[in-house]
Design goal:
binds NADP nicotinamide-adenine-dinucleotide phosphate; 349 residues; alpha/beta; six-stranded antiparallel beta sheet
Length: 349
């Protein structure tokens, strides 16, 4: 292990390049010995970030054994589950094994938690991958992980199943930001609204915009329409490919009667969707890029190229109270909860 003093941000575990923090490091030390300011976790499930899981699936031709091998090799090489192509991670479900003696936490061995910091900075060791779930971007493993002093986590509540809690908390930053960005009567576009964060954002957008707000849900595949319709929160649902900005622009303008959006939320898991988000947004509006495949240069230079002044936000996975807000959405809407249960619950593959 790096001989530096234990650091609250985990820099003592960085191997290369020295001086970096764990998220941007190439390799971190995944020795599973709990330092005084760390928490050691026995891991049950990894929820791999959607952009990362999609990239791994495509690179492996959807072969589960090849995907498992790729995940094992990334973790063996880097000491963390950070996809080298997308740079993204995910989060994990596990039980507390040990709490470092310098820490005061509301945790004891055996407590079930989900980490709320990215796997892209979390020291991880996988002994074995037990199962890979193609439809919910998860793998069950036998292994251990370390949470740093500044690492946040949520205790798994007793009133919701752990698997859907894990899925929802993975994207908790998105609906919580929607609650902060969307105001009464706003026109809101959600690109990727049939996906996991998409349905949470659509639901929260309706709550925040109220009955007079206009919520447009953009889906890629018609198969996602029924689930989204069942929530009854979108004013209109349009189908388009977000990699085709002019197609998106004309569908959205058609649906809104020519009015541009106050807030656009991008929760897509593929690259090349920046301009589809910026084009239909007012100059005074906000584009919130939550998708991990977002390119800073495409967004910044593309906005300049069309003379757009829309404010653009990087979708930080954390915002205060995000875990509580997201789980409360599942608590208050039986339809949303049923949808999560069907897609990410125990019976999902
Ligand atoms: N910022 C953060 O901290 C953070 C945290 C977690 C996740 N993320 C990122 O947030 C994004 C969404 O995550 P998620 O878990 O909600 O993913 P998800 O459930 O896979 O949803 C992604 C959605 O995007 C749609 N989509 C794919 N290609 C599209 C296209 N060309 N045009 C329009 N829609 C398209 C998908 O439709 P199909 O299913 O039909 O392909 C799906 O509905 C991912 O990029 C993920 O990496 C960010």
């Amino acid at each position: 292990m790096n001989t530096n003093q234990p650091c609250p941000y985990g820099s003592h575990r960085v191997i290369t390049p020295l001086g970096a923090l764990p998220q941007s490091a190439d390799v971190i030390d995944n020795t599973m010995v709990c330092q005084d300011n760390e928490i050691l976790i026995d891991v049950q499930t990894l929820n791999i970030d959607s952009a990362s899981f999609t990239q791994i699936r495509e690179a492996c031709g959807s072969d589960p054994e090849a995907m498992k091998a790729m995940i094992l090799s990334i973790v063996a090489r880097r000491g963390k589950m950070q996809n080298p192509v997308t740079g993204s991670g995910g989060m994990l479900l596990g039980t507390i094994r040990e709490v470092g003696k310098a820490l005061t936490r509301d945790l004891k061995p055996g407590d079930s938690i989900a980490t709320l910091v990215s796997l892209s900075l979390t020291p991880l060791k996988i002994d074995k991958i037990l199962s890979l779930y193609m439809d919910k971007d998860q793998v069950d493993i036998r292994g251990q992980a370390i949470l740093f002093e500044t690492g946040i986590y949520a205790k798994i509540p007793t009133d919701l199943p752990a698997d859907i809690v894990l899925s929802a908390l993975d994207v908790a930053g998105a609906p919580a930001q929607v609650a902060k960005l969307v105001h009464q009567n706003d026109a809101v576009l959600i690109i990727g609204s049939g996906g996991k964060s998409g349905v949470l954002c659509a639901y929260q957008a309706r709550k925040s915009a109220g009955p007079q707000g206009k919520i447009i849900g953009l889906i890629y595949d018609e198969s996602e329409r029924a689930d989204l319709e069942s929530l009854a929160v979108c004013s209109q649902i349009v189908q388009a490919d977000a990699r085709k900005p002019m197609e998106v622009f004309s569908r959205v303008m058609e649906a809104s009667g020519g009015v541009k959006m106050d807030v656009t939320i991008n929760v897509v898991n593929v690259p090349g969707t920046e301009m589809a988000s910026i084009l239909p947004t007012k100059d005074s509006g906000i584009v919130y890029f939550f998708g991990m495949a977002t390119s800073f240069s495409r967004a910044a230079l593309g906005a300049e190229g069309i003379k757009s002044e829309a404010r653009m936000m990087i979708g930080n996975g954390y915002t205060a109270g995000h875990d509580r807000l997201t789980l409360d959405l599942l608590r208050e809407s039986p339809v949303l909860r049923g949808l999560f249960q069907k897609r990410y619950g125990a019976e999902a593959k």
